UniProtKB/TrEMBL annotation:
Protein name: NADPH:quinone reductase
Taxonomic superkingdom: Bacteria
Keyword NADP: yes
Pfam families: ADH_N, ADH_zinc_N
Annotated ranges, domain Enoyl reductase (ER): 17-325
Listed InterPro entries: ADH-like_C, ADH-like_N, ER, GroES-like_sf, NAD(P)-bd_dom_sf, Zinc-ADH_QOR/CCCR
Signal sequence residues: none
Length: 328
């Protein structure tokens, strides 16, 4: 390729992956004030990325959009106002494509410098590319309402991207972690991540299992309030917080009386709505956990950049583990 160009996957309008995604040669972006440019090694795909591309949840496209919030790579240029000492730093990327045409599905991306988070030098970039949205979501859910040290935490969907991060971060923060799963294979993922109690909700009575283990859960990381509202109100301790980060299962019916009697709080979070301070605090939790080697690589499926449409299709099918793109 000519100097100053790069390969990027992009879409110019929303729709099915095979119809709107293309891999093309484009001009390599330069960082502006307060920005860094990252040579991307690995790009991570989240449910939010495929929903944006499909038009289910999206923002206006200014000509084109390079997708994907998550990734890992090395800073190779900085804009005005950014410490030149960051050049050469290995980083993981957070919310790269939010309000920005340059997501991580390209050889280079440009982001505000605070969205390029320090990755310990000997850390596998594959792990770095699995952090971003799920790790920051889990960190915020666990820590925004106070410490969970010495507390019991319930993480629903422990084999999912957010759930698995929630298990590892919860254990690192000093909590006892209970999780729910839907199969033995997923139970093994959760046990490997360090869950203290794993409950298969398809074959076990979740309330009985949790009550047999815990006198009361203090924090819930909730992926499906529609399915779990009654369970959460039954197993929570007084003044517990249920943090809802997804809408799996549709609309929920909230048991009001038991929630009232226990003074439960229900917090609904969307990373897009968090301000920079909140995102940086949660990202700082992830960075400290990385320093302590508390986060590990989940099951992954890897695709080449040119196979991005197939990678999106797999993500839409509900994959086991994370879907990653290797960037040439």
């Amino acid at each position: 390729m000519p100097d100053g160009t790069m390969l990027a996957a992009l879409y110019r309008g929303t729709g099915p992956a095979a119809e709107v995604l293309e891999v093309v040669e484009v001009a390599r972006p330069d960082p502006g004030p307060g920005e860094v440019r990252v040579r991307v090694a690995v790009s991570g795909i989240n449910p939010t990325d495929v929903k944006n591309r499909a038009g289910i949840m999206t923002w206006p496209i200014d000509g084109f959009q390079v997708p994907h919030h998550d990734g890992a790579g090395t800073i190779d240029a900085v804009g005005p106002g950014v410490d030149p000492g960051r050049i050469g730093e290995q980083v993981w990327l957070m919310m790269s494509a939010h309000g920005n045409a340059w997501g991580t599905a390209a050889q280079w991306c440009v982001v505000p410098e605070w969205k390029a988070r320090r990755l310990p030098p000997d850390t596998d970039p594959l792990l770095g590319a699995t952090l971003g949205v799920p790790a920051v979501t889990a960190a915020y859910a666990l820590t925004a309402d106070g410490s969970v040290e010495g507390r019991d935490v319930l993480v629903h969907g422990g084999a999912g991207a957010v759930g698995r991060c929630g298990i590892e971060l919860g254990r690192w923060a000093g909590a006892r972690v209970i999780t729910t799963v839907s199969s033995e294979a997923k139970a093994e993922v959760a046990r490997t991540a360090g869950a203290d109690l794993v409950v298969d909700y398809r074959t076990e009575d979740v309330v009985a299992a949790v009550r047999g283990f815990s006198a009361g859960v203090h924090r819930v990381v909730e992926v499906s309030l529609a399915a779990n509202a009654a369970i959460d109100t039954e197993v929570c301790a007084q003044d517990a917080v249920v943090v809802v980060f997804a809408t799996d299962g549709g609309e929920a019916v909230l048991p009001v009386r038991p929630s009232l009697l226990k003074s439960l709080s229900f917090r609904f979070i969307l990373l897009y709505n968090l301000d920079r301070e909140a995102l940086e605090l949660a990202s700082g939790v992830v960075e400290r956990a990385l320093d302590d080697r508390a986060l590990t690589l989940p099951p992954i499926t890897r695709f080449a950049l040119e196979d991005i449409a197939a990678a999106h299709q797999l993500q839409e099918s509900g994959p086991f583990g994370r879907v990653l793109l290797d960037i040439p």
